[in-house]
Amino acid sequence: MKESVKHIMSFLLITGNLMSCSEYLDVVPDDTPTIDDAFSNRATMEKSLFSCYSYLPDPADPYYYPAYFTHYDEFHFGTSTWFRNAPAQAICRGEQNTNAPYMDYWSGGRGGTSLFQGINICNIFIEGAKAPKDITEVERNKWIAEAKFLKAYFHFFLLQLYGPIPLIKENLPLSSSPEEVRIFREPVDECVNYIVQLIDEAAEYLPLTVENPINEDGRITRPIALAIKAKALIWGASKLFNGNQDYKDWVDSRGKQLIPYVYSKEKWEIAADAIKEAIDVAHSANYRLYTYNKATSPHTYNMNDSLVRTMTPRKAVTDKWNSGVIWSSMESFADGKSGITIGTNTSNMQKTMYPIIVAGDLQGGVSHCYASFEMAELFYTKKGIPTDEDPEWDYEGRYKPRIATIEANHQSYIATGNITAAINFDREARFYGNLGFDRGFYEIATTTVNGGKSFTPYLSMRSGETGHLQNTTGYYIKKLVAFETSCSNGTTVLPYAGEDYRFPLLRLADLYLLYSEALNEVKEKPDGEVYFWIDSVRSVAKLNGVVESWQTSNFPNRPADKDEMRKIIQRERMIELSFEGQRFWDIRRWKLAEEMWTMTARGWNNAGSTPETYYTLRNIATARKFTSKEYLWPVKLSELRVNTNLEQTWGW
Q1: What gap in Å lies between CA 281 and CA 339, rounded to an integer?
Q2: Which residue, among 59, 46, 16, 5, has the nearest Cα to 501 in the 3D structure?
Q3: Half-sphere exposure (CA, 13 Å, Cβ side) for 511?
Q4: Residue 142 and residue 136: Cα distance in Å, rounded?
Q5: Which of 32, 184, 465, 648 could form a disulfide bond with 37, CB atoms 3.0-4.6 angstroms apart?
Q6: What's the rounded mean pLDDT across residues 539-567?
Q7: What is the dihedral of CA 473, 479, 480, 481, to 10 degrees?
Q8: What integer pLDDT is reported at residue 33 of this predicted model?
Q9: What is the mean pLDDT of residues 551-577?
Q10: Burial level of 86, CB count in 10 A (0-12/13-18/19+)?
Q11: What does the angle CA 306 – CA 307 – CA 311 come to, to the nearest 5 degrees?
C-alpha cells in the first residue's frame, strides 16, 4: 500500500503538479501519516473518501467558480476593488494566459484547484478501500463506486474546460520508464467514452437514494451518476466537440486528431438514450419537477396565486431536499482531525447578492453582485414568447417609464401608483421570481404583511434613495436568495441572517430540457415528443406549450422548424436555469460565445434621481473581447516543458 505514495509522486512529476510527500499527506488525517493507516479501518477510510469529495469545485463561490463572472451576459458587479481583481474578472477582461492561467484546474492556482490531484486521490482510495475489515462488502462497494464517480466527474469537469485531457486510469508506479510518464492528451471521444465507462462501473453499486438526506445529501446516487453520464455524452455530441472545423488541424505528435471535425448524428442518438435512462431512473427515485406548495411548505404564508408562481423558481433552488433537485452540494463542514473541508456555504453567496432595502442593511456594502441587463431582456412576456415577438407587447417602448395602476394588475409585483420601466410589466412569473428591480417587491420572510399576502417595501434604486448604492445594471438577483433570509423588516435594519441551503448542481428540469434538445437534433423535424419535455418545464411556470404559445406570436411557425426549435430550447434553458451556473457551460458547448459574450454591458443610469433620468440606458462596461481559442482554456507552459508529449490547447 505504501507504494501508492510513490505512484502519486510519479504522476505529479510528469504533469508538473509536483508537491512534497508531506503536502500530499495533508489530505490524510494528521494522526495517520501513512497510506496504510488511512485505510486501517472504516472510520479512517471514510475520511479518505471525504478527501475525494473535497476536490469538488464549489458552485456557490461566485469569485472562483468559472460559470459566473467570466462574462457579462448573466451577472455583473459593483464597485468592489477586490472583486474587480478576482480571477473571474481577469478572464472577462481577456487576460487569460499560458504563463500563469487564471482558474487553473489543470495545475492548480489563481483560483483553481488541480483536479488531477483529486483524480490521483480517488485512484489511491479505490486501491486502498480493499483493506479495512470492519466494513460490509455492500458499503465498501458503494464507497468505491462513489470514488469512481468522482474520478469520472473530475475528468468531465476538465474535459469541459480543456477539451482533450490525459486519462489517469491508475497512478503510475515509481518504476515507470521516462516514456511511460510522458502522457498525452487523449482525443475527446476517448475521454467521453472513458467517463461513461467509469460511471457505468459505478452505477451498479450506487443507491437509488440516500438513506439519510440530512447527513448524506450530496453523496452520490445512481440518478446523479446516470445524469452526469448523459451530460458527458451531450458534450460529446454538441457543436463544440462534434464537427467543429476550427479544430481540423489540431493533431498531436502521434498523428491523433484530438477533436473530431466530422459531424456525427449518432452521438446525439446515444446521448438521447442516456438522458432518457437518467430521467427514468430519477422518476423511479421519486424526483419530480418542483412546484412551490404554500400549504406544505415548512414556512407557510398566505400568498396569492401570483406570488406562488414567482416563488416556484426561487424555491426550486433554495428549498432543501425538494423533489426537483437530483444533486445538490454538501453542506459545508470541516473535520477537525483531518483538516478536510467539503461542501458549500450559500449564505456568503447570498450576502453578495442581497439588495439594500433599508439604509444600513448589510453594513459594509457587501451587496455588489447583480443580474445583467441582458437577463431582464431574456425572459418571456406573460404569453410565454420573446418580447420582440409578442404583437401585444410594446417592444419599442420597453425602456420608457410607466406607472403601475390597479388596472395594470401588477399589485403582486410592482408597488401600485409608482413608476418603473415598461420592460418590467406583463412578463412571465420567472421574471419576477428571478429579478429584483426599482419599485418592484423583493420578498423575504421579514418583509411580509397580512400573513404573507403581500410584501413591503419595494426596492428604491434611484440616486439619493436607499437601494441604489452600487447597483450598476438596475437588477438584483432574487432567485438565489432564500425567502427565509432576513436583513430588514421593511422599516428597521435587522442583523443579517442568511438561510443556508444546498446549491443545486443538477435539477430534473435540466434533464428534461436536455432531452428535448437531443431529440430535436435526432429527428428530421420537431414533433410531439420534442415538445413534451420542454412543455413540461414551461407548465410549472404556468405557460402554455411552445406550439400554442407561438401561435400568438409574430412567427407562429417557429416551433415547427428544427433550427428555430433549437433556438427556442436554448432560450428556455437560459431562462429556466438562470443564475444556477449552467449558462456558462451551455454557451460554450453550443459555440455561441462570439455572439453572447461580446455584447456591451448596459444598465439604467443609477445617477438619475427621477424616473426620466434613471430610466436612461447607458453602457456600463466595454464589450468583452472573445476569440475562438477561448472556448478551451490553456495549459500552463511549465507543464509542456516537463512533459513534451503534451499539446498546448488549440489557439494558445
Answers
A1: 36
A2: 59
A3: 30
A4: 10
A5: 32
A6: 98
A7: 90
A8: 47
A9: 98
A10: buried
A11: 125
* Dihedral over Cα of 176, 180, 182, 186: its sign: negative
Task: Give the Cβ contact number of residue 599 at 10 Å.
Answer: 15
The residues with which 448 forms a beta bridge, in sequence order, are: 455
Q: Nearest Cα to 320, choosing from 342, 297, 300?
A: 297
**CA-closest candidate to residue 479, choices 576, 380, 378:** 576
Is pLDDT above 60 for 13? no
Q: Provide the residue ranges of all domains of the chain, joining segments of one domain with +.
A: 3-66+103-289+324-342, 293-323+345-501+524-626
Q: What is the pLDDT of residue 17?
A: 42
Instruction: Give me the CATH code for the 3-66+103-289+324-342 domain, please.
Output: 1.25.40
Cα–Cα distance measured from residue 570 to residue 566, given in angstroms and rounded to the nearest whole number:
6
C-alpha grid cell, residue 306: 401570483
The DSSP code sequence of 37-66 is HHTSSHHHHHHHHHHHHTTS--TT-TTTST
pLDDT of residue 172: 85
In 9-115, the DSSP E strands lie at 75-77
Beta strands in 553-611 (DSSP E): 601-604
Global pTM reads: 0.94
Q: How far is CA 155 from the centre of its chain?
A: 17
C-alpha dihedral over 462, 371, 384, 405, to 10 degrees? Answer: -10
**pLDDT higher than threshold 60 for residue 622:** yes
Cα–Cα distance for residue pair 314/85, rounded to 1 Å:
30
Asked if omega into 207 is within 30° of 0 (cis), the reply is no
**Bridging pattern class, strands 401-403 and 448-449:** unpaired
Cross-strand partners of 421: 401
Q: What is the pLDDT of residue 23?
A: 36
What string of H, E and C letters represents the secondary structure of 506-556?
EEHHHHHHHHHHHHHHHCCCCCHHHHHHHHHHHHHCCCCCHHHHHCCCCCC
Side-chain half-sphere exposure of 635, counting CA atoms within 13 A: 26
Angle made by CA atoms 142, 145, 151, in degrees to the nearest 5: 150
Of 401, 337, 363, the C-alpha closest to 488 is 363
Cell numbers standing for residue 226: 446516470
* Euclidean distance between CA atoms 387 and 395, whole angstroms: 6
- DSSP, collapsed to helix, strand or coil, labels residue 458 as strand
- The 3 state secondary structure assigned to 630-642 is HHCCCCCHHHHHH
Q: Positive or negative, the Cα torsion across 419, 423, 426, 431?
A: negative
Dihedral angle over CA of 95, 97, 99, 102, nearest 10: 70
